[in-house]
Amino acid sequence: MLSLQEISDRLEIEQLIVRYSNCIDQRNWDGLDQVFTPDAYIDYRALGGIDGRYPQVKAWLGPALANFPHYCHLVGNIEITLAGDSASARTLCINPMDTPLPAGGSQVMFLGLWYKDKFTRTPRGWRMSERVEEGCFQHNVPPHMAIPAA
Amino acid sequence: MSLEELSDRLEIRALIVRYSNALDARRFEWLDEIFTPDAYIDYRATGGIDGTYPKIRAWLPPAVGAFPHMCHLVGNIAIELAGDRARARTLCLNPVEVPLAAGGKQVMLLAMWYQDELLRTAGGWRMSRRVQDGCISHNVPEHLAVLAAER
């Protein structure tokens, strides 16, 4: 049977994963300060982004996502492995993106990806210390968008 | 809810997610710790086979080998506990990238429910029965139209 501590840890980590999606989808970049450790490593290269430490990635996000008027990051299939004050998780994300077209109008593309995360317990709660994307399916991607084949 | 019921619900949810990850990451050996050895599995609603676990375990790798990328997103997990047994109904959205004979690829979107029966064993919760109940199929390539026709 899971202990109360383990149940609490699992629910807190799930909430952290959802909070990341909400910060990104509401363009609340400062909110990410409560998601990542200051030196977290983040790798968005599987879907055409950058990799680096949290401050560099935080500064990159706003301009990079300004090109997309509407999008969301639905997470599910969260599989968490706990190890005391650290943890890892694999999470599936379905990501519809409203993409403006060069000739006018827009097209919604659907990206599927997994997040491979590492977490650490800090005095202020669980934080993400690493997030690496792994690509899955890509549907309805406009020809002008450069996304590496997964 | 008691601590035991909370624990059972989280463990069963984790088992259902683990199944999706075993298929999507092609780690079929993980299935040995998801199903009981004599579990009954029925994939006929989406064009697959039915049978007991060893037969399904052998059938799966070549059957999904044709699809380079797919995922089985689960949600709406409704669990009914009854001591050392449980039932669950789970919705699954299943996008599958299908290579086309003429080149290129097409993403089809299938949806189904899993109707599961579960058992508490010495090694933790296991699935003793999983039967698919078909829902939508969208954008299925012509050469796979059998999937839709047989539903």
Short description:
The complex is a heterodimer of chains A (150) and B (151). Chain A is α+β, with helices and mostly antiparallel strands.
Structural notes for this entry:
The complex is a heterodimer of chains A (150) and B (151). With 150 residues, chain A is α+β, with helices and mostly antiparallel strands. Chain A has a single domain (4-139), classed as Nuclear Transport Factor 2, Chain: A (Roll), CATH 3.10.450.50. Chain A has helices at 4-25, 54-65, and strands at 36-43, 51-53, 70-71, 74-83, 86-100, 106-122, 125-139. In chain A, strands 1, 2, 3, 4, 5, 6 and 7 form a seven-stranded mixed β-sheet that branches. In chain A, strand 4 and strand 5 (86-100) form a beta hairpin. Chain A is elongated, with a radius of gyration of 16 Å. The N and C termini of chain A lie far apart (38 Å). Chain B has one domain (3-149): Nuclear Transport Factor 2, Chain: A (Roll), CATH 3.10.450. In chain B, 26% of the residues lie in helices and 46% in strands. Chain B has three helices and seven strands; from the N terminus they run H-E-E-H-E-E-E-E-E-H. In chain B, strands 1, 2, 3, 4, 5, 6 and 7 form a seven-stranded mixed β-sheet that branches. Chain B starts with a helix and ends with a helix. The relative contact order of chain B is 0.20. The model of chain B has no long low-confidence stretch (mean pLDDT 94).
